[in-house]
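FW: tagging you since you asked about this chain on Friday. Here's the raw sequence from the shared folder, copied in full. Didn't touch anything.
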Amino acid sequence: MTSPFVSSREAVCPQNLIDLAQSFAPPRVAIARAAAPLPMEAAEDATKAGIMIPVFVGEADVIRAEAAKLDWDISGYALHDTTGEEEAGQLAAKLCGDGEADVLMKGQLHTDVFMKSAVSRDAGLRTGKRFVHIFHISHPDGGKPILISDAAVNVAPNLETRQVAISEVVDLLHRLGNDHPKVAILSATETPIPAVPSSMEARELADWAKANVTGADVSGPLALDLILSMDAVKTKKLTDDPVAGQADAIIVPDIVSGNGLFKALVYVAGGCAAGLVTGAKVPILLTSRADPAAARMASAALAAIRCGLPK
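HL: got it, structure written out here
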């Protein structure tokens, strides 16, 4: 029996995200092992929306067969025949490294195989920056989205990695049209307490951001109620904090809190989670088999916005 806390609402890809993506030229997306229904359906939807040009990598016969099931003529798109997960991952990553594709997307292969290909020196995707994962989560009723980093890639990010995450979410929010975003650093308290290491680190990160990040307000530590609820902010008399109760992004201390928070917003609130990995030469779409069609479309739109290719 499903828990009563699980929302029955269907995720909705926000139209304004697609509209913004359509204002740019569609990026070429190398789909590693595209030969499966879910990645092919996602590619077709995003291609027809004008926010992707697919570059298929995988077993060519199966890719053509999956396209035929959708009645989709893919003869005009690049198709690279490979065998198995590793070969598909390596070639898709190298196509991006060689400048033949603008986005790397995970298809029907294991995440560890996919990411190993992406970080390989042979792929040419390393930039010297740390890879961080960012979720853009929107509510089915609309309203402003919230970004979360890092809920999928870095297990226990150190301070330097979280500094990169702050810079990346601010950059992405700027690209999304938010001129002065508000970024909250999550802990279990709004007061730095030595017994709660994440609260001490949050204050250190907030101080770093004040000195190094422009065009944004960054505050921490903040507990989740003080990040999301203005009522909690008023009750706890934190109204002078520029981020409390109105955050556009949350920087989490570890993958457990980030993953739990993102899944709560999706499964409890019915949110649509678009995700990408930054820090490589190209944006990386780390899709999951559990992702609904709306999340896959939103992820493709987010990648197109992150690329920002001129029309």
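FW: The chain has eleven helices and eleven strands.
HL: agreed, and The mean pLDDT is 94.
FW: great, closing this out.
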